[in-house]
Model the fold of this input.
Amino acid sequence: MKAALSASPALTVREGASRIVARQVRELLRWEKGARRGEDPEAVHQMRVQVRRLRAALALFASVVRPPKRAGRPRLRWLARTLGRVRDLDVVTALLEDRHLPHLEGVEAARLEDLLAALKERRWRAQRKLTASLARGRYAKLERALRDLARRPRFVSRGREEAMAARHLTEVIHREARRLATHRGMSERRPAAEDLHALRIAIKRLRYVLEFHAETCGIAFDEERRLTRLLQDCLGEIHDHDVLLAWLGGERSVPEPPVEASLFAGAWRVLPERLAADRARLERRFLRLRRQWLARTEPAGAVAPLEAPRFVRLEAAPVQLRLAPAQKTVASLQIVR
Done:
């Protein structure tokens, strides 16, 4: 959490929404120059993440904040797709080049080098389109609307805007956690690829709310945030492997490859085996993380059989209390929620 945003559990929903939305806008625009230049893949990645976080924040506070039309969901979805075309190519290229190319030899290594060259050429084209898009009027209008949203948010009065933000966010966290507990990916012994992909999206949604809670209210679900981050990252890597394995196998049940399908077609002897082994390792890691998550969300005491699991063991958080005597000493009190 960055110190620029002072956290307070006493914020109202309106105040919390205003702070969270403004922060996402600032972070999004902070990465725009690097994404426009295309010199740092991390800038594209971070700008895309901030677009997703802003969309999540606007959905979370849809009953409180009304974004201008030029900063609404369709415009943000367009920006996310434009950034995603570059980012997806970065992910695939890095996975193949850094993790698998060094272990291939002969003809198969040469084929993969040809494939990587084609991916980099496609990435260059996608970056040119991204740079052009960020220089055009459509993005300029979106940027102005976002800055206006951060400075002067338009509030909607529907009865809960003066409630405590901490309570509102906690209610959403527990609702998303209950929804997560019933997901097939959290119960199947060997979840299918499509279930894991859907689970990743659900975990990401919960993670964002957990992070908004920590950044704004100062009362953090620290272990839950850590686990959602690890689960999302692991499931993201599993999805990348599933897509690559499908492309190499010529399957059409996944998105079309970013280069000509002929570059993936044909006999790959070692690469699919390495991808499958890597994928199996990632799945074992996911199952370990899932066990840790379920251990934290088991019901406490006797509950109805159909009651969904909930958070029951929240870690202690140090709270600093400033005492008023002449010596101006500071005491640290450990509070367990």
Remarks:
- Residues 164-337 form one domain.
- Residues 106-134 form the longest helix (29 residues).
- DSSP finds ten helices and four strands in the chain.
